[in-house]
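For the sake of transparency, this paper describes our internal protein records without simplification. The record that follows is passed on verbatim for readers who wish to inspect the format:
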Amino acid sequence: MAVMRIGHINIRVLDMGAARHHYENVLGLLPQAEDAAGNVYLKGWDEWDKYSVILSPSDHAGMNYVAYKVQHDADLDLIKGRIEALGREAEMVAAGALPFCGRALRFNMPSGHLMYLYAEKEFVGKSVGVTNPEPWPDGLKGAGAHWLDHCLLMCELDPEKGVNKVAENEAFFREVLEFRLTEQLMVGPGLVVQAAAFMTCTSTPHDIAFVGGPQMGFHHASFYLDEWSDVLKAADVMGKNKVKIDVTPQRHGITRGATIYFFDPSGNRNETFGGLGYLAHPDMPVITWTEEEIGSAIFYHTGELKESFTTVYTEGV
């Protein structure tokens, strides 16, 4: 059984015209399709499946769901059995329920976030092809994001009431979906409360992350760039387009990535994540950050945690 990677994310937007300008001209994603309900499908130039982002018109911002791709169709049946063995619900939906995809498995994470797994999606190919390819295609717009890299989800955390959806999600993803924990933030007396968990199913520092907060929600979707200079260029593009920036270019302590955080016109947070960070091989020991170093863990340059970073986010379902 293998969950291979993130497949796509479905984001709710308030103004489709403004959202399309942002995702196409600021991030540089490429439009692929639009359906009768007004949903818009986009991909990065370095991706080969039909889409990695769905923008859905709505009267409230947030995330509808996130989907990951498994290696074999039979993996869906195996995972369904594992989820149901825990007493949790999982539903197999027919091909086409996820647009341009084969059958899919639908379930909620312990945190309440909706998730799909699928094995098949329509193939369209990279913008540079796979025969004698150039390093990048001509005509890229904005930041020229390569691909959807990961998402970070806010999970309810209230140790006094014995609620820790970060830890529940981490255990579920590790035991059921076979993700690996790469880094964590431990807080509280004796450092026994897992307040953040970064997990991978590939060799990157994280394919999904969970951070504790007062209620569940959608923190950000992240898009990959090559290196620090590309992150700085992305910041210039945002300045030219009057994008609201949350955190100017920084380095993370956790994952070591170069980053900039900003908001789409609906208030959904995005990130451009530059550089590999490190290789998360299966035998890599888990990296632990402690409460007194939380500032450096999130924003290594300043060592200070910006309050809005953990308190401002949109709905996660």
